[in-house]
Amino acid sequence: MRTLKTKIKPLTFSFFFIVVAIGCNTKNKNKGAITDTQNTTTKNVLSAEIDSVNLEIINGDYGLIDRFMVIQNEEVLADFKYEQDYESIAQKYDTTDHQYNYNHPNWHPYYNQTELHTLQSVTKSVSSILLGIALDLNDDYTVETKAMPFFKDYEFNSQDIRKKEITIEDLLTMRSGLEWNEDDYTDPKNDCDLLEKSDAWITYVLNKPTDTIPGTRFEYNSGASVLLGKITRNITGKRIDKWAEEKLFQPLGIKEYYWKETPDGEIDTEGGLFLRIEDLAKIGTLFLNKGKWGEEQIISERWVSASTSPIVNSIDPDNKSRTGYGYQWWILQHNNGTTEIFAGIGYGGQYLMVVPEYKLIVVFNGWNINDEPQKLTRKVLQDRMIPILKTK
What we know:
392 residues, Beta-lactam/transpept-like, disordered N terminus, Beta-lactamase-related domain-containing protein, globular, seven-stranded antiparallel beta sheet, 14% strand, Diverse_Enzym_Activities, Beta-lactam-related, 12 helices, three-stranded antiparallel beta sheet, alpha+beta
């Protein structure tokens, strides 16, 4: 039986954390900043809804939720932590001690009983930032650069003509053209599962044939994100975890993290990063500030804009999906090419959701991998918070 315990109540979080851990506390505020009166009104409007969601989480409506955080205008409005007994929960499942056994409580959802929580595919969004920084600093490469020359030292079927045309942008936008099955994680032929069980990740991806022309069709592909991690290493000369420490984590004050290493000595850029939720929220704040942290431009505004734009207008046009995709970021809501909500999304209930119009960030950590919850945390922002803000 799960136990839930609220640690922190909304609107009472410390000033120290607001300024140091999340806020940049810059002297130059954005033009048209929201006034103190407007801030107070917004907080009051959101507070009741936040409390309602919190009570529903405690009631179990959203399944196994570990953390729920709301930040607006760089102020933490709410931060709830819920305690789950994952050791007991895992007992009815296979608990083989392996980093890709998602039911082993030493590996998931927290790393070894620390505050470091698995991000799963939100890792892709962070990895994209690191590639963007690499391209910002190196004029020899752009998103139009062909991808295959980065893998000349690997043996794979390179006779596929279409494969030679894959660009970095095709990989970033999940339009690689590679044949890939990642729809159902219970399917024994799921390519992501087979990838994680293999001893040579990059070779596994490179040997996949193409089934469409690169750049033409969205097909969610964690293998593409693996290739992007290697490309970043080739451009920078540094493994991506070391590049992250230097160019992203240290500037943002992120001192603790864990990042899985693959059997072939690379870093798992498709789902292997663990961060504290406070540090994950910093990523959202960085993007709200168009790549700036304090006075430092960590990542170019151009890259932030491209990453969070609906380059793929619809991930499933046949079913009239309104969800788009950028550079490893989901565009949950957009209108006439303008992004209204963008997000990093990960397996089990990892959500970093950002609403630029309202300077709003909503973050969830959870671990709903075996049972479908009654309600989805992904819907909290779109269905409950945004409608309230629009009518205030």
